[in-house]
From TrEMBL:
<comment type="similarity">
    <text>Belongs to the 'GDXG' lipolytic enzyme family.</text>
</comment>
<dbReference type="InterPro" id="IPR029058">
    <property type="entry name" value="AB_hydrolase_fold"/>
</dbReference>
<dbReference type="GO" id="GO:0016787">
    <property type="term" value="F:hydrolase activity"/>
</dbReference>
<protein>
    <recommendedName>
        <fullName>Alpha/beta hydrolase fold-3 domain-containing protein</fullName>
    </recommendedName>
</protein>
<dbReference type="Pfam" id="PF07859">
    <property type="entry name" value="Abhydrolase_3"/>
</dbReference>
<feature type="domain" description="Alpha/beta hydrolase fold-3">
    <location>
        <begin position="75"/>
        <end position="290"/>
    </location>
</feature>
<dbReference type="InterPro" id="IPR050466">
    <property type="entry name" value="Carboxylest/Gibb_receptor"/>
</dbReference>
<dbReference type="InterPro" id="IPR013094">
    <property type="entry name" value="AB_hydrolase_3"/>
</dbReference>
Amino acid sequence: MAANSDEILHDFTPMLRAYKNGRIERLAGQDFVPPSLDPATAVNSKDVQIAPEINLSARLYLPGNADRSKKLPLLVYFHGGGFVIESAFSPQYQKHLNRLVAEANVVAVSVNYRLAPEFPLPIAFDDSWVALKWAAAEGSDEWITEFADLNRLYLGGDSAGANIAHNIAMRVGSDNPERFNLRGIFMNCPFFGGVDPVGSESVEQFKPWKEFADKLWRFVCPTASDCDEPWINPGKDPNISRLVCKKVLIYVAEKDLLKERGWYYKEVLSKSGWNGKVECVEIAGEEHVFSVFFPDGENGMAMFKKLASFINDNE
């Protein structure tokens, strides 16, 4: 064993440690559960291969009351984990998506994109784009073909997944793909960044957190010039007014410093000239991605109900 095998190069506890010898130690998000028929929600799930050559897959969810005669909205969901941990197959995302799908009454595709640092950004974005195009392709999967309405497409995610949802929505606007109509995006405690602090990020006691986040951004995308790249900081994107959907729902948590980035996103989008409706909801007393960790909690269930209204309002 090399003498430096245990020397830590990057420490992103509680998510990941990277060692000088190249070893990556993931500290969370490594558990997997199989798809199933969930007895608590009657939601059924199954796994599909999207692009086996790049190990891109997804978990599909179908509500128990799905009826071929009445198609449902399609939600393409991106999990969180700082781009470095978690998967679409973890126990907490299985439970989270079961609750969300049951409440919102949607068909969902939870994308298992590849993780950094082995696959640095923009690979997660590229994988997510491939998954979205797969979902929209004719004959992609019988659950989508028979039960989903591609004219009512939504993108959603938490933390890093919320960042992906935004960036994929921007790509929908620029690439103008066929066969679906993006109605809206849902972002739960979105993971954005920026060179200059916003809000309470400038408070002395929070500076270590911002330094941690900035370092993580450089780690997941070492080719980025700085944290003002548009996909990190939408406030620096001159094209943000071209966001193609007409409504955006953002959730932030009072005890999560990332709430400042969620509010900043709302401010930037509102002032950009974008022709849509954006709402940001802050939940008192909660921490980062509270609904993922506690989907049965009062605030998590209330968020799912709000999301159900957001998705099923046909305005």
